[in-house]
Automatic annotation (TrEMBL):
Organism lineage string: Bacteria, Bacillati, Actinomycetota, Coriobacteriia, Eggerthellales
Keywords of this entry: Chaperone
Protein name listed in UniProt: Tat proofreading chaperone DmsD
Transmembrane segments: none
Keyword set includes Chaperone: yes
NCBIfam families, per the entry: PRK11621.1
Organism: Raoultibacter timonensis
Keyword Chaperone applies: yes
Name of the gene encoding the protein in the UniProt record: dmsD
Length: 216
């Protein structure tokens, strides 16, 4: 285990990233359970919050948080925000950047592909049970961020393997695409902040990743 994972502060920063960002990929701003989280971001001072955000430079974190607060300037109930979430993550139209890893790494570009099954096997082998949302494939970026936070609290010795084998293999590729197709600043900022947070964590832990071929 990396020596930094012995530090409670380092684990708490990892948990903060996963707990804070994960719900925004999983929850509808209006119908979901994350309304308070959206409202908390709306009230942020991007400069102050950027100085505190872990694993990302202050300047970049401020820029991405400013995009997120801009996207919330008209309130959580704003139609543009709500419909953008549904366009990006729900459908029914074809999603411009699907949030599941196997869509990018599986030759057939399918949900529940081999990378999903590999993550499921890894979770089972390490005694990790799903506690919410049994229908969504395990390699949904939101679920993976929430699991990262859980690992930081419960099984920190697994973080490097989880990131190196299951998250970082596709997260930057997907999140860059998501930022490109987002038409609402909140989700552009969210994608960029998540991307650089994971990449910053990769750098701090010195994780070497074997990147797969992308089919999308």
């Amino acid at each position: 285990m990396h020596e930094k994972l012995d530090q409670a502060d380092f684990r708490s920063r990892i948990a903060f990233v996963g707990e804070t960002l994960g719900p925004f990929f999983l929850q509808d701003p209006v119908k979901g359970d994350a309304r308070a989280a959206f409202e908390a971001v709306a009230a942020l001072d991007p400069h102050e919050a950027g100085e505190e955000w872990p694993f990302v430079s202050d300047e970049h974190a401020e820029r991405y948080l400013a995009l997120m607060t801009e996207g919330l300037a008209e309130g959580v109930d704003n139609d543009d925000l709500v419909w953008e979430y549904r366009r990006l993550f729900i459908g029914p139209a074809k999603k411009p950047a699907p949030p599941w890893g196997s869509v990018y790494t599986d030759r057939e570009c399918v949900v529940f592909g081999e990378s999903t099954l590999a993550l499921r096997r890894w979770m089972r082998e390490n005694g990790i049970e799903r506690t919410t949302d049994e229908k969504t494939p395990e390699d949904h970026i939101g679920l993976m961020l929430v699991l990262l936070a859980w690992l930081a609290d419960a099984k920190p010795e697994l973080i490097e393997q989880y990131l190196g084998d299951h998250v970082l293999t596709w997260s930057s590729h997907f999140l860059e695409q998501l930022a490109d197709v987002a038409e609402q600043p909140f989700y552009e900022g969210l994608a960029l902040l998540a991307k650089e947070s994971l990449e910053g964590l990769q750098s701090e832990l010195e994780i070497e990743v074997e990147y797969p071929r992308y089919y999308r």
